[in-house]
Design a protein that fits this description.
Shape: globular
Number of strands: 0
Distance between the termini: 30 Å
Number of helices: 6
Strand content: under 5%
Order of helices and strands: HHHHHH
Structural class: mainly alpha
Mean pLDDT: 88
Low-confidence stretches: none
Radius of gyration: 19 Å
């Protein structure tokens, strides 16, 4: 276990432990009341979902053009986290939407493109598991497509009719809502980096173990 793991995990745990307190101190939204506070989990999850898709795509591009297996391992770890945070996004979103907008799901541009992005991450992982020899390069191409979908997800609310507010809303939040939000985003980001490091390290250990098996067989 690396020396950084215990202090990093401790800091991350303390930040998450303080999250309910920070959210409880945030004021109610004028029209949605208490239910809007799921926003402090939904939006950070969505940020990590998109961030992870970008990390996966960048690492895949570096692997395709450089051939370094370290980048391939990072891409695989990021794809798994894209699935994880994408699931959190797609679960918390409908829970919030049902109470605030009266519907669980609408096939608008953001919701649909988010679902597509999540399915792309799944396609990457399925290719890696069942694609056979050379599947890592094919999966890397899929990851690039997933990264190209990220700007569409983010900007779709500005150009198509949707129940989601435009991107200009977040920077204009009052401080008593904005500060808790960015605290939650920072906490999720810290958690994401920790998980990515741990999962990448596990991939490295698997690679070393496979190399040892090859030496034994030889």
């Amino acid at each position: 276990m690396p020396t950084w793991f215990v202090p990093a995990a401790l800091v991350c745990g303390l930040m998450f432990a303080a999250t309910p307190i920070v959210i409880a101190m945030a004021p109610f939204e004028a029209t949605m009341g208490l239910v809007y506070k799921i926003f402090y989990y939904h939006l950070p999850s969505a940020f990590m979902f998109l961030t992870s898709a970008i990390v996966c795509g960048v690492a895949s591009a570096r692997f395709l053009f450089g051939g370094d297996p370290r980048h391939d391992r990072t891409a695989r770890a990021a794809a798994e986290l894209t699935v994880l945070f994408g699931l959190l996004t797609l679960v918390t979103g409908p829970l919030w939407a049902r109470k605030s907008w009266g519907t669980w799901w609408v096939w608008d541009a953001r919701v649909t493109s988010s679902l597509v992005g999540w399915m792309i991450a799944w396609a990457y992982l399925i290719l890696r598991k069942y694609g056979g020899p050379g599947s890592e390069k094919l999966a890397a191409g899929v990851a690039l497509f997933g990264t190209a979908n990220v700007p569409f997800i983010y900007l779709s609310v500005n150009y198509w009719r949707t129940i989601h507010p435009p991107t200009s809303v977040i920077p204009t939040l009052p401080a008593d809502m904005g500060i808790p939000l960015w605290y939650c985003v920072t906490t999720f980001l810290f958690f994401y980096v920790l998980l990515l490091k741990m999962r990448t390290r596990l991939e490295e250990q698997h690679a070393r173990l496979d190399a040892l098996y090859v030496r034994i067989d030889d």
